[in-house]
Amino acid sequence: MEIRSAAAQGLASCHLCGKVSPVALGNCPRCHGALHLRKPRSLERTWCFLLASIALYFPANLMPIMTVGGIGGPESDTIMSGVISFWRKGDLLVAAIIFAASILIPILKMLALIWLCLAAAGKTHASPKNLARLYHLTELVGRWSMVDVFVVAILVALVQVGALSTVVPGPAILSFAAVVVLTMFAAMSFDPRLLWDRHTGADLSDTHE
Amino acid sequence: MKRHLPALSWPRLDDAPIQVACPFCDALQEAPRLPEGDAAHCCRCGEMLYQNRPRSLARATAFSSAALIFMVLVHLFPSITVTAGSVRRELTILEAAAAMYREGNPLVAVGAVFFTVIAPLVLVGGLLYVAAPLRFGIALPGAKSVTRWFQLCEPWSMLEVFLLGILVALLKLGSVGEIHLGVGLWALAGLVFCTAAAMAGIDRLELWDRLEIALHKKP
Ligand SMILES: [Zn+2]
Ligand SMILES: [Zn+2]
Predict the structure, then answer these.
(1) Which domains does chain A have, with CATH numbers?
(2) Would you call B40 helix, strand, or coil by DSSP?
(3) Which of B8, B45, B46, B50 is an S-S bond match for B25, by CB 3.0 to 4.6 Å?
(4) Rounded-to-integer distance, Cα A160 and Cα A156, Å
(5) Is A65 in contact with A148 (CB distance < 8 Å)?
(6) Which residues of A touch B164 (CB under 8 A)?
(7) Domains of chain B: which residue ranges?
(8) Residue A190's closest chain B neighbor by CA?
(9) Cβ pair A13:B208 closer than 8 A
(10) CA distance A29 to A180
(11) Mean pLDDT in runs of 10 for chain A (209 residues)?
(12) What value of ipTM does the predicted structure carry?
């Protein structure tokens, strides 16, 4: 039996409730969500979010994420210097967690999304099954990058005035949170069905319906 | 009209075979009815399409109510208490966000509140609001919009990430003072577990199919 795509028959599956209806209806008869054959302007929007997150990745890593005030005067920490100090202290596991969550995952996620966008635009070739796996992975791990933002917030709340030293959040914290949110938006606007469209020879990447 | 074959899939509005399109490759295929515990996979790309979870509504209701109770505990009791001399600091989620706000990062504070308080509350509360009455075939007013909202909130609920953040912060605190782990921390772990179990308890397609039937019964 020949497998046909829903889009080829003018059918769209609702992105909220999964019901398949003719795209001509405009809205899903079950949940009233808007019907689209593909996510509207998927690639353009993914590129936009990606470029914004790449731009913010630099201040997020170069500026201090927090400043610890102690007897020896204030000391600023970037993400990387925090990782290194954990490594020196012998906390290899924590160093690895922070390095993976804050530095590795954002970079790999951006590279993965760039590759997915290029593949969906027909610029590179890979099996759609592997690309789908890659997409799943980017969706799964992206949120864990937020861990450093929470760590700083927790330290700021716990270590303040008095006998304790003080911790002040640095300017990188906002750019870092923005990088995580933007890459999540980028992954959400990407439509993995475009990869299969490319594979089967249909091009629906600028479908606006 | 509503016919339920024992141990064979959830009821649907229409007994005629329905079609689903794979969310990953858009292959149009017939949606088979499944025995409990089974999952349907795409015929072209192998992606999982939907599952029939055993005792789905009971599970979703039980785990989301437990999660709500844990959520109250998380906000009432501190997760970590640090004592150094006469200074004593307690950590709750809201206290962490408030500290960010005070230190000149209102945007990050608002984000943190959304990711760790609002999104989880909408997610768990919304699921309970929809799933509990559905056990009796009833849909409360606004059930459709509530379902839409909690589905949209799902990727933004980051309590498990916050929990990891607490663990990392504990190691970073080191010798700052005397550290006590509080009820809030265990409640947070319980909340993370129950939220995950509640969301995995019922398939999205099943929830909407049941919702459709409940709404159809009303005039
Ligand atoms: Zn729908
Ligand atoms: Zn498929």
Answers:
(1) 1-37 (no CATH), 41-200 (1.20.140)
(2) strand
(3) B45
(4) 7
(5) yes
(6) 97, 101, 144, 147, 150
(7) 14-52, 55-217
(8) B24
(9) no
(10) 35
(11) 80 89 89 88 94 94 84 79 87 87 91 92 83 89 90 86 68 92 94 85 61
(12) 0.89
